[in-house]
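JOB MANIFEST
job_type = single_chain_structure
chain_count = 1
residues = 365
[input]
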Amino acid sequence: MKFRCERDTLAEVITTAQRAVATRTGAMPQLSGLKVTLSDGVVEFVGTDLELTIRVTAPADVDGTGVAVVPARLFSDIVRAVEPGPVTVEFGEDDAKIAAGRSAFSLRLITAEEFPRLTTITGSGVRVGAAALADALRQVVPAASRDEARPILTGVLLAATTSGLRLVATDSYRLAVRDLQGVSMLDEGQKVLVSAKGLSEVQRLLGDGEIEVVLSERDVAFRIGRAEITTRLIEGDFPNYEQLIPSGYPNRLIVNREALSESVKRVRLVTQGRDRSPIRLSMNSDGLELSAVAQEVGEAREAVEAKYEGSDVVVAFDSQFLLDGIEAAAASEVVIETVDPLKQATLRMLDDTDFLYLLMPVRIS
């Protein structure tokens, strides 16, 4: 069996499917492969690490049908490296021959029978506006934890609300909440915990139009054009995040979002290469001053024009976490509300309550 496909089309679908391929295969080396399925006029590539699966199809001239498993990384590198134009891939019993322009390669195949049997979610699902979901994922996903020792925090909570859908993520140092008004993805009162890694891949593929979301008992599939991303739901109870959000704040700062972002980037230059480096925000009636100090390196200070109401306060935050929140807020002005230097603060968009970013302060001497 063999197929023929344009290099750029082939490279794009392989790169997408490869993003789910396991980077650490351990006792299952077959997970380092891409499953290739040939059918009439279509070639499908599947990558998986058993938690996340990505399927992508591409139109192709196909001769014969069947299944093979190729080493993902090397196959991808070859396809991206050959000259533009048609690429022909022919599968034998033990190897795949790749021909493009003046180049020719032969790759040993991975035994197809050893590739894991994957769950396929059938049926139709709910269609959601892709642009709105992409924006919400951009704001929320970065706040999820990457620590696999705390699996609950590596997910994003999707919860049905009376007005639509709420997305929530936290790594215990910061919390991001985004409401999508009028979006009905779940049944009333339903909530699920979805892998942030999987949702990050969904966000990467979203553009205009709609995305189809199909929910099963243990998995959720997102169908976007010729791609389908399936990820397992995370079992367990998400933290009671609502009790972390104070009902009111005595101190309120309004500042231009872009000006604040650029100032944070400049001031934290003196702390580069240092983990969890804090940046201080001094807020008073004169406005805002940012500062950072790195022992044996230096210090930086910068004043930022802002409107402030409340008592004088100096509070410090992890500079990257602060910057993530600032850049997630899609507004010309943001509001930072504080209680005191030791209590959590919130960052919101001015005149928009659909996004909230809660940030724990860093204790400073």
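[summary]
The first strand starts at residue 2 and ends at 6.
Residues 7-18 form the longest helix (12 residues).
exit_status = 0
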